[in-house]
Write a structure and sequence with these properties.
CATH superfamily: BH3618-like
Order of helices and strands: EEEEHEEEE
Pfam families: FliW
Strand content: 35-45%
GO biological process, one term: regulation of translation
Number of helices: 1
Subunit structure: Interacts with translational regulator CsrA and flagellin(s).
Subcellular location: Cytoplasm
Family: Belongs to the FliW family.
CATH architecture: Roll
Oligomer: single chain
Structural class: mainly beta
Length: about 130
C-alpha cells in the first residue's frame, strides 16, 4: 500500500511539542519509498528527531476529529490539505513498536503549519501496538 507522505522542507509548529519549548521548525522527511516511515527532524537542533507515520497502514479506521481552534491555528481551509501523523515509540522490532493515537501531529500542507493535537477521547491509547 502506497501512502505517499510528501517530503516537506520546513513546517512550523504553532505550539511546541511537550518538553521542547524552543523547537518550532521541523522538516518532514520520508525514510522509505512508500512514505510509511517518516521523520520530523528539528531544523534548530538536528539531533532532535521523531519517528512518525501516517495511520493508514496500521490503523486504517483512525479518523481523529480536531476542534475549531486547531483548524484556526493551522489555517485549514480544506481537509485535502491535511495529513495526520502518529508519533512512534520505536521498539527493537515492529512487534514492540507503538504509536501514540491520543496525540497525533496534524500538518496543513498548504500553509506548512502543524501542531501535535491532544484528542479528547479517553479510548485512544498513548501506546497502541502496531502489530496485534
Amino acid at each position: 500500500m502506497i501512502v505517499a507522505v510528501p517530503d516537506i522542507p520546513s513546517i512550523e509548529l504553532v505550539h511546541p511539542l511537550p518538553g521542547f519549548p524552543d523547537m518550532r521548525r521541523f522538516a518532514l522527511v520520508q525514510l522509505d519509498d512508500e512514505g510509511v516511515l517518516c521523520q520530523l527532524r528539528s531544523l534548530e537542533d538536528p539531533s532532535l528527531r521523531f519517528l512518525v507515520m501516517p495511520p493508514v497502514p496500521f490503523f486504517p479506521d483512525y479518523a481523529p476529529e480536531v476542534g475549531d481552534d486547531v483548524v484556526e491555528d493551522l489555517q485549514i481551509d480544506s481537509a485535502e490539505d491535511v495529513i495526520v501523523l502518529l508519533v512512534l515509540n520505536a521498539g527493537d522490532t515492529l512487534d514492540t513498536t507503538t504509536a501514540n493515537l491520543m496525540a497525533p501531529v496534524v500538518v496543513n500542507t498548504a500553509t506548512l503549519r502543524a501542531s501535535q493535537v491532544i484528542l479528547d477521547d479517553p479510548t485512544l491509547p498513548l501506546a497502541a501496538p502496531l502489530v496485534a
